[in-house]
Specification:
single chain, 794 residues, 19-stranded mixed β-sheet, 15-stranded parallel β-sheet
Amino acid sequence: DCDVVVPSGMAVEIAGDAEVASLVVRGSLVWSPTQRSVLHAGFVVAEGPNGLIEVGTESNPAPEGSGVYIRDNGRQHEALGKRSFGSWKQGAAFHVHGRPLQRTWDLLSRHAWPGESEVQLEHSPQESGWRVGDRVVLAPTASYPKFKHDSKAETFTVVGMEGNVLRLDRALTQPRAGSVVRRVQAEIINLSRSVLITGDGFDGQGHGLHVVAHSGGVGVVKYARVTKGGQHGLAGKYPLHFHMAGDCPGCQFVGNAIEESSQRGIIVHGTHRSLVSENVLYDIMGSYIYVEDGNELENVISYNVAICPIKNGCKVGGTDNNQADDLQQSGLWALSVSNDFIGNRLVNMYNGFFTQTSAFPHGRGAAAGRVCTMYAPFGKISGNVCHSNERFGFYLDNNFPRKLRRSVQSNGLLDPADFHAHVDGNPRTFSSCDAFTEAGEDNGVSAIVEDQLEIGNSFSGQYALGDVQFLRWHAINNLHGIYWKETKAMASTGIVAHIKDSTFEWISSWDDSEIRGILGSPEVGVAAIAGPGGLGAFIIENTAFKGHLGDAIAANQHCGLTGTGGLCTPEYQLAQIDWSGVNPDTRRIRFGISNGNDVLPIFSTFDDSLGGYVSVASSRQDHLLGLPGCHSTGDRALDNGIGCDVPLRRLQVWSSHGNQGAVLVAPGGRRWAMEFIGPPTNNNRKQAFGAAVAVGESYVVELSHPDGITLEFSDVVYGTDFPGEDWIDLEIRFRDRPEANRACRISSGHSRAFISSDGPLFDDGSLGACTAATASSPSDEPPSSPSDEPPSSP
């Protein structure tokens, strides 16, 4: 019952089992390198500036069976609290090293069926360092609509191994996929380690142990098993936790097995340049891996596997973040995207990988009011896999990466004046969080999400996302292969396409009945791409569609509903689309999805991606039928749109003063009431009229008055990334103020300064194309059709 302090300058070695009430280490405490040793205590904490705890070393791991056992004996450390193991303050450190494994997880290389007690892996389990007697978990590979216990993980004990085959102590009860060729494979994780961090069972409040590198202390845990962790409802009490460690490249959680936690798994909080890699997490309540406040930078979170035992069975309320742990429970929940997320696999959660920036746009905790999470630049996001999750797999929420003025040296925080300029409500003060620089230049910085694999989730993607390319995205039997409501043109040169070199496929029974049966998917998907409603060009390049997808590319997801989208006038530019494997019943393009606007999207190509047409617009834009080279396709694959052998581009008239009853007068005199998209309740700038117009033609737009008017035509990529600038001749007539009439030739290269998907930053008429200052006076010729002739309605 002794509370022990190892003073600075003293070195103590533990050989065999030892028990104290509590232990503070200000000198050094080292586990025997030759004898199994376990320390039992209410807490064990190394304190700065010199405290060191060493349970084995990298070159000489602790002997088999060594570890730490944390008692529930009422002892509390002054900073870390009860049932704690870790380090506190600068200069303090704890190191735990178990026997390293070549692999902590593997994938099945052939299907496994109920009744079988052997599974074949991609690699030799012996070479991976696995042993007879190890506990392993086999992940499910069930898709929508299999929920709860119809999608469950199973735990086994290894009883033998030969080559790549693992023999288990009992038979499987559910099938698992193991197709290397089709990339549908179940994970198998190893929960056994030579070193154990555990303790007494959870008390009546759900409180167990917690392991933490705290307030500048360093923590290293490698190849250990951590169980009975987390203290439900108490902030900062988790199985493995970097807490306000600052710039800590020495902080490492690698190769661990975390199981049976009442509150989260691995937490990175206020810490930079740490490493979280090759860990396996199972049977944890709340988010499994959690990046907390939004200021965390340059951490590497890689090759971890997180499996919820029962689909959507890991939610828990009553924490300090019910979004992350309950309402939007996730395998990996990150408020800061400025870290590297590489090769992680998130399985059977509510959401797989969620960057929930819109819930905390200005950060949390100590970072609150010093970050702008939705505008943080991305780290490297590569090779992650999300499958069998109930709602979203990969979920980027709302992100527009920008050139923020912050760094590791500033603790990931903005200067207070910089942040204030972002939130002060004054459009003429500029922050590095804002969409534009003071000169009106795009402040975005483009990023790439590469080699993402999504299988059997209901959704994958985001709501609003700009300056991010999906490269080699692969969606398999995802009910929505990618889900996206709003975007923008890329800011960075060299990155043009939004989706590139990607594959969207649906495996049905007539394709592969075994995989379809294991997944349990419907025979037909909803949409491969449920795409955004602008702003501007949305480019899909060198992408293949396979199987019966429902809709392959559907534009304007939810666009126009309470301000969703970029005014619903997207120009979908298709390049090198491979339709060869698509089911003939799949609709290749669609105008509007999920009640999104079905009038304004345009699909265009410079090759044969549209079956010989240059552009296809909605059948409701019937003013196009008066143009030579445009006619109704009557083709369901093209959503019965109007096909043209000339390029069509958007003409957009922003109107901050509301619906002015805009009328488009097309070549030949046909009049058409331009489609109006109304504003959300919080932004009168975000409202506009739209129409598809033919490049090289002459048009008239009639409006009531010039107040609050900003015009846009086409997109700057036409002339920079695609050959030849687009142009039209346009006359604008104002019914109530004809003296303000103007005419101009508008090019796709016109200025976009201060114009975003939220509308023009200033509505004084100075922005966009054909302004009063740049246009000429029109001729006095009468309109090409009588002004009292009623326009057609879309």
